[in-house]
Amino acid sequence: MHGTAACVMALTQSGASASALLCGTGLDESELLSHSKKVSYAQMQTILRNAVALSPGPEAAFEAGRRVSLASLGVWGLGMTSARTYRELAEFVVKYQWVLGPMVAFDIHEADGKAWWTYTPLLVSDPRSTEYQLSMEFAICMGYRLSEAAFGPDFKPLEVSLRYAAPAHAHLYERFFGIPVSFGQQVDSFHFDPALLERKLPHANALSMAMVRAGCELLLKKLSARGSIEARVRELLAAQHAERPAPDIEDIAGELEMNPRTLRRRLKEAGTSFRGLRSNVLMDQAIAYLRDTDLTQEEIAARLGFSDGSNFRQAFRRWTDQQPGAFRPKRKSGAPPQSESGQL
Predict the structure, then answer these.
(1) Runs of H (alpha helix) within 55-177
(2) Of 66, 147, 196, 211, which has the fewest CB atoms closer than 10 Å, so is most exposed?
(3) pLDDT tens track for 113-160
(4) What topology does CATH give the domain 224-327?
(5) C-alpha to C-alpha distance for 3 and 293, rounded to whole angstroms
């Protein structure tokens, strides 16, 4: 719950209500303080969609990311504080990130005299979607501020690179990061001087780090069976393309080199199912297409593997209790309305 709670609490400081952010997740606001409560990817995905719908403005994700504190991240935050060098901090963060329950996975790289963090959203795969962009704004801003908090004011990234095209509020990026930002790149990352990796951190504590690592190892063992299989199946489902049919459980089991029956059992142990995960991924992709492209409902249906627009609309109503048209951005006065046949 730590990562989810930190995200929700930061967003509430930007104007959203915790109850509204948790709407549809089955989680109660009081559970944000639970150290034993687990959160599924489906619940995190619902929170992300709620955050997009409730966002008071384009600054919200940046502000929320900047407000996440090391203390709010529990044992994971303590590990960042206790590291001796920025390199040790980076290695700790990458190895134990799953303890946090991240919406975005991160990794550290060093080559040819350069160093950079890379980010991979786990809940949505299309860089054009609003959810993807909000995830990156929150995650990179959080990573920047937490590095600064652990390292001190001398920590200065050199450049931010993002996969998606410059949004309408692109000017906010340089305002919040204070460094050059490049859009339309191959990866989502921020670069920094590799010399910083060897710099000693001001709050290093070897005893605390040893205790934190031992605790994180235990947590990882408990989480591995649940989180890793669910995340991997979601990743494979989200990678489907329009030119091939949606993968079934046999396809996914083959990718994972396991028997379909074994995959069903492991997903059940993780508290989910293949059918449920596939529906969640399809819903996420459908909403992203509706919000962020001009594709007709018939075209979206084809891309998602539905036989026709009617079947797509029936499934969409089952997922959301709403018509697909409700997720289209509001058009200016005089623009032609979208018909329920799927034509714009």
Answers:
(1) 60-67, 74-82, 86-100, 130-151, 171-177
(2) 211
(3) 889 999 888 777 778 888 888 888 888 888 888 888 877 777 778 999
(4) Arc Repressor Mutant, subunit A (1.10.10)
(5) 30
Distances (CA, A) of 136 to 62, 118, 125, 190: 9, 11, 12, 11
Indicate if 224-327 has the same CATH topology as 2-207.
no
Contact 77, 96 (CB under 8 A): no
Contact 75, 216 (CB under 8 A): yes
E strands, the chain, are: 104-111, 114-121, 157-161, 181-182, 188-192
Q: Which two tokens stand for residue 169?
A: 């509020």
The two beta strands, 181-182 and 114-121, are unpaired
Of the candidates 99, 111, 333, 304, the residue with the CA atom closest to the CA atom of residue 342: 304
343 — alpha (psi -120 to 50), left (phi > 0) or beta?
Answer: beta
Closest CA to 277 of 323, 317, 231, 314: 231
17: tokens are 């209500």
Lookup result for tokens 């599924």: 40
Domain boundaries, the chain: 2-207, 224-327
Query: Model confidence over 277-325: pLDDT tens digits?
Result: 888 788 877 887 887 778 899 988 888 888 888 999 999 888 877 888 8
Which of 65, 61, 214 has the alpha carbon at shortest distance from 149?
Answer: 65
pTM (2 d.p.): 0.62
| CATH architecture of the domain with range 2-207 | Alpha-Beta Complex (3.90)
Q: How far apart are CA 288 and CA 290, in angstroms?
A: 5
For 214-235, letters b (16+ CB in 10 Å) and e give: ebbeebeeeeeebbebbbebbe
pLDDT category at 245 given cuts 50, 70, 90 is low
Site of tokens 């719908």:
53
Neighbour-count burial of 19, counting CB atoms closer than 10 A to its CB (0-12 exposed, 13-18 middle, 19+ buried): exposed
Are 42 and 13 in contact, with CB atoms under 8 Å apart? no
Neighbours of 106 (CB within 10 A): 18
* Single-letter residue type at 74: G
